[in-house]
């Protein structure tokens, strides 16, 4: 299945794009998607410890099992206010 | 609990918000906070902050915070406005008001929402120097 991924804030500059699509096998986890993603975008890999992950509009961790229709977002720590 | 949320590129009309306040007769405290962009970011002088936002998630996360606030049962209303786009030094980027029966609850709730927002609401800011503001390569993202 294909999972769209959006990079927010300066993650878009590090990735060189604001959106991409990752093809993963059924029942893949976010961690498995990230492993593929970090190969294509190594600059993001260096920030993996501080990376926040959302699926749709909810925060998720790396163990979340992806479903068709999911949309993953990756972004740095938030700074509102 | 009544709630109002706006994530907007428009300047925050603080006077208008205050003028439109409603509270029931049992409410004795209306606390509001206005967060203003400072002219320095770290050691650097700046002229503005550029705020970017994952709007749909930000709205969802704000409403989750408001849900948790409502569970306290002591707050009658919360209103929150957050600017996005370019916000000049001296302008308000965040305005929040909490109405409750007593000041301790209102102050506490106001502080709590801001603290939690800074943990979970996907908004980011980028400092803008005078040189960057005048560069055609770095236009106001909302203009």
Protein model, in words:
The complex is a heterodimer of chains A (81) and B (143). Chain A has 81 residues and is of the alpha+beta class. In chain A, 25% of the residues lie in helices and 26% in strands. Chain A has a single domain (2-75), classed as Ubiquitin-like (UB roll) (Roll), CATH 3.10.20. Chain A contains three helices and five strands; from the N terminus they run E-H-E-H-H-E-E-E. In chain A, strands 2-1-5-3-4 form a five-stranded mixed sheet. The longest helix of chain A has 11 residues, at 30-40. The model of chain A has no long low-confidence stretch (mean pLDDT 97). Chain B has a single domain (2-11, 27-131), classed as Aldehyde Oxidoreductase, domain 3 (Alpha-Beta Complex). Chain B contains four helices and nine strands, in the order βαββββαβββαβα. Chain B has helices at residues 14-19, 55-72, 103-120, 130-133, and strands at residues 2-8, 29-36, 40-41, 44-45, 48-53, 75-83, 85-88, 92-100, 123-128. A four-stranded mixed sheet of chain B has the order 1-6-8-2, with helices on one face. The relative contact order of chain B is 0.27. Chain A binds chain B through residues 6, 8-10, 52, 54, 56-59, 73, 75-76, 78-81, and chain B through 35, 51-52, 54, 56-58, 60-61, 82, 93-94, 114, 117-126.
CATH class of chain A: Alpha Beta
Query: Looking at CATH, which topology of chain B would you report?
Result: Aldehyde Oxidoreductase, domain 3
What's the oligomerization state? Answer: heterodimer
Structural class of chain A: alpha+beta
Outline of chain B, from the CA principal axes?
A: elongated
The helix-strand sequence of chain A is: EHEHHEEE
Described by the principal axes of the CA atoms, the overall outline of chain A is globular
- List unreliable stretches of 5+ residues of chain B: none
Number of domains of chain A: 1
DSSP E strands of chain B, number? 9
> Roughly what fraction of the amino acids of chain A lie in strands?
25-35%
CATH architecture of chain B: Alpha-Beta Complex
The main β sheet of chain B shows up as:
4 strands, mixed
Distance linking N and C termini of chain B: 36 Å
Return the string of H and E elements of chain B.
EHEEEEHEEEHEH
